[in-house]
Design brief:
By secondary structure, the protein is α/β, with parallel strands linked by helices. The chain contains 12 helices and 20 strands. The strands form 5 sheets. A 10-stranded mixed beta sheet has the order 9-7-5-2-10-1-11-15-19-20, sandwiched between helices. Strands 14, 16, 17 and 18 form a 4-stranded mixed beta sheet that branches. The radius of gyration is 22 Å and the shape is globular. Bound molecules: inosinic acid.
Length: about 450
Amino acid sequence: MPNLAIIGGQWGDEGKGKVVDLLAPRFDIVARFQGGPNAGHTVVFDGQTFALHHVPSGIFHDGVLSVIGNGLLVDPERLIREIDELTSRGVPVAERLRISLAAHVILPLHRELDEAIEARWGTGAIGTTKRGIGPAAGAKAQRFGVRVADLGRPDGIRSAISRLLASGFDGWMRELGVAPPDPDEVAGQAASWWSSLAPMCAGTTALMHDALDDGRSILFEGAQGTLLDLEQGTYPFVTSSNTTTAGIAVGLGVPPRAVSTSIGVFKAYVTRVGGGPFPTEIEGAEGERLREAGSEYGTTTGRPRRCGWFDAVAARHAVRLNGLDGLAVTKFDILTGLDLVRICVAYELDGRRLDRVPEAARDYDRLVPVYEDLPGWSEPIGDARSVHELPAAARRVLDRIAVLCGCPVALVSVGPDRRASLFPEGVLKIGAIPDARPGSAP
Ligand code: IMP
């Protein structure tokens, strides 16, 4: 099985967790390369629902090693809670998980700063998940971050916190109403986190190199989505990591050519949580209908997600940025019952037609979507097990998405369960997916 990247094609919450869980048994390793506890990957099987935040979605499969790469921001408190919960539900996490010693750590102070900064920005706030992502990523870039390996060295923690305070952070924190940390107290917390996490910590770059040398197959699991990428997304309304395939190399220490195939996950409509531009957003009752039908509430924060029509211009941009070989279209069943399915095929900006997303974020707010309307369908499709079983109108929507994005549809999800997954022939060469797999999980 060639190495495969699964990447969010929109603003996150596209259903990557399900896709990764579905494909994971065909790989030796499932590796996360960016993001952190801001992610919320939902996996449903055998009537059970799991929400993952740091832990890769391959964790439910025996014989698959899950790797948290150096590119993640790890919140030890939350990670320990996540591991404990999975373990209590019968998932042998300790055997299957390896955490990079080089990953940076989110400390309580980063969470408090995230919250305080958002409060200061008021209506102009990013709408972050308040998990401390921005401040921890900032500390990493400013070179006073704390890494997982440091947790086992109380002196290292003390000196990292002292460096931070000596850089003028204490004044800034006080100004924001956040109490500066006591280096000894943080060192004490770190020691307790380390005693829980140490058995799972490893040099994951070397682990990945050995895996590549040995020809072991790797699934690279993205978090958030392409339009939240720090460089290429709708800045400043983005997260603080590289969510595209480009992030894989730096977030795991592998060469870019380690990725052979890339699949982008796209909802059949679009959602976004937090602030920022959203050209195809649907206001009012129609947006509300999608939100309710699709249960569009955040896995991590419970916030209602903004809903809109499929944006083929932004999707085509994501195909190009990531070099996608195929699209995984999720939540396709949620479109059932609509009279018309709208797809944005271009934008208008100040009366000019645009076929690409604008480079300048300030132009986003003035974009007017140009829609193509396709007839909907009323038949439930959740039990379909092949694309040929879908109503003709539904197949036509998939065909248009593929043509407009310039990329074939490799997978269609028609329900949350693993079995509700259709594989158009010939795109994803992964062999047959059994109709009802027992799941090697708990
Ligand atoms: P942060 O990553 O918490 O700093 O949030 C920055 C932006 O990314 C906000 O708009 C969040 O709502 C969004 N975001 C972060 N993680 C996710 C995710 O997993 N799904 C969807 N949006 C996310």
